[in-house]
Automatic annotation (TrEMBL):
PANTHER family: INITIATION-SPECIFIC ALPHA-1,6-MANNOSYLTRANSFERASE. Keywords: Membrane, Transmembrane, Transmembrane helix. The keyword Nucleotide-binding does not apply. Residues 449-476 are annotated as: Disordered. The chain crosses the membrane at residues 85-102. This is Initiation-specific alpha-1,6-mannosyltransferase. Pfam families: Gly_transf_sug. SUPFAM superfamilies: Nucleotide-diphospho-sugar transferases. It comes from the Eukaryota. Residues 459-469 have a biased composition (Polar residues).
Length: 476
């Protein structure tokens, strides 16, 4: 016979279980071999039948048994089992990755109270939490920068030497907006460098000035108005001059109520770049920049036509060094006022020295930008006169701000008599008022033909002004 078929009932049961083709047993041509092979196949069929009987029907298999059967059915080879196991593990791994990703993106499972439940090992944040964290980090960085600047202002410099002052940084500033190398006086420049070891020197041209103004605008437009500066409110700016007392007060010089310095935003400087570039006279821009450089960085400012007569570290008497944060000098001391000046005692601004963030400087910047914005026709309207310049950015305006500060820190602001021009007239030695050192006429104005100033260099002379610049022309 050609083939031998197994019992039909056993074959049908086997095919139902494993969906295999009927098992056929090829037979050899030799009778002996046929009998031996038949015996082996009969044994195999009996063994498989017994195994199927022990498993039972498909409906009676439990879930774990089904899962085990899926992976480990006898009909599968070892390679097939391994492939199925790998697929299952890969699926579980991808599912875990997806859960972590959704959790990190702030997506969680909705719960009845409307919130979201996140994985216990959650490492991510919601979009709102990320925004809040970023804002908090930005605020912390800003505070750290301010603290660092304050610490540097107080402790960066060696106060035990005579070359540095405790609160005024060792920086020298000069401004030459229309810079021409052939015009710079090497003699004047050398006097500043030779007497100021370890001081930095900066000569601002038009480009450098614009960069500094842009820095101011960036601070003013910072998110949330986070930059705050010490500044006086605008109460005193309605005065036409330094307040006087008693019968000497004219109608235009009424006594102004005391005002206190406050931390204010830089909202006034949001349009500073536009206003600065629109200033029609160079002298306005040069004046504005000297106040801005010292407000931001601190140090010493002096005009290009000045020479240093005594090292900066020796400007302040030893007993005043620890308190001095602002140094101003008289440019006139005469009653009635000297021709070309506005007040009996007037402060010069061709040389200044200050710690950064001094309220007089920020108040001056606020005053300048506030006044120019109220000019009839704006800065591009009618041509500004010399008196306009004096009252907006020049010595007259500076004198008003300084007098208000002196009263706040040493006069009526601390329960003392009001400081007026009469308080300062005739002074021959430096005097400290609060944090401000006021120098007599010879300090910065030796050689002026008035106010009893020395005609030549004296022991009080710190800076000599050569008066070679002429701002009283159309070009400024």
């Amino acid at each position: 016979m050609d083939k031998f078929r197994i019992d039909r009932q056993t074959q049908d049961y086997y095919n139902e279980k494993y969906a295999r083709s009927p098992i056929t047993i090829p037979m050899a041509t030799s009778p002996l071999k046929d009998n031996a092979m038949l015996s082996r196949w009969q044994s195999l069929i009996a063994e498989r039948s017994a195994r199927l009987s022990s498993v039972g029907s498909a409906s009676s298999i439990s879930s774990p048994t089904r899962a085990s059967a899926f992976l480990f059915r006898p009909r599968f080879t070892a390679g097939a089992r391994l492939r199925r196991l790998v697929l299952v593990l890969a699926g579980l791994f991808l599912l875990t990755i997806c859960m972590f990703h959704l959790n990190d993106q702030g997506h969680g499972l909705s719960v009845p109270d409307g919130s979201r439940w996140h994985l216990p090992w959650r490492g991510g944040m919601s979009a709102e939490e990320k925004k809040q964290k970023a804002e908090a980090a930005e605020a912390a960085a800003l505070e750290a920068e301010k603290s660092l600047l304050a610490e540097m202002n107080d402790s960066e410099f060696d106060t035990t030497t005579t070359t540095h002052l405790p609160h005024i940084p060792p920086k020298i500033w000069q401004i030459y907006l229309d810079f021409k190398p052939t015009v710079v006086s090497v003699t004047y420049l050398a006097s500043w460098l030779a007497h100021s070891p370890s001081y930095s020197y900066t000569l601002l041209d038009a480009g450098g000035a614009l960069s500094m103004v842009r820095r101011l605008v960036g601070m003013a437009t910072a998110k949330g108005g986070s930059w705050k500066v010490p500044i006086y409110p605008n109460t005193y700016r309605q005065s036409t001059g330094p307040p006087t007392t008693g019968a000497d007060a004219t109608e235009g010089e009424k006594e102004i109520p005391n005002v206190e310095v406050e931390l204010g935003t830089l909202d006034f400087a949001k349009d500073a770049l536009k206003q600065y570039t629109a200033m029609p006279r160079r002298v306005l821009r040069a004046d504005f920049m000297r106040y801005l450089a010292l407000a931001l960085e601190g140090g010493v400012y002096s005009d290009m036509d000045t020479s240093l007569a005594k090292p900066i570290g020796e400007w302040v008497p030893e007993q005043f060094r620890a308190e001095t944060r602002l140094i101003v000098g008289l440019e006139s001391d005469s009653s009635p006022p000297v021709k070309g000046t506005t007040y009996e005692v007037q402060f010069c601004q061709w040389t200044l020295a200050s710690a950064p963030d001094h309220p007089t400087l920020w108040s001056m910047l606020d005053r300048i930008l506030g006044k120019v914005s109220k000019l009839k026709g704006g800065l591009l309207g009618d041509k500004l006169s010399d008196n306009d310049v004096l009252e907006i950015t020049g010595p007259a305006a500076w004198t008003e701000v300084v007098f208000e500060h002196l009263n706040q820190v040493a006069g009526t602001g601390v329960g003392q008599p009001r400081i007026t021009w009469e308080t300062l007239t005739g002074m021959t030695e430096p005097q400290l008022y609060g944090d401000t050192l006021v120098l007599p006429i010879d300090g910065f104005a030796t050689g002026v033909p008035h106010s009893h100033a020395s005609k030549t260099k004296s022991k009080q002379t710190l800076v000599q002004h050569q008066f070679q610049g002429n701002w009283r022309d159309d070009k400024g």
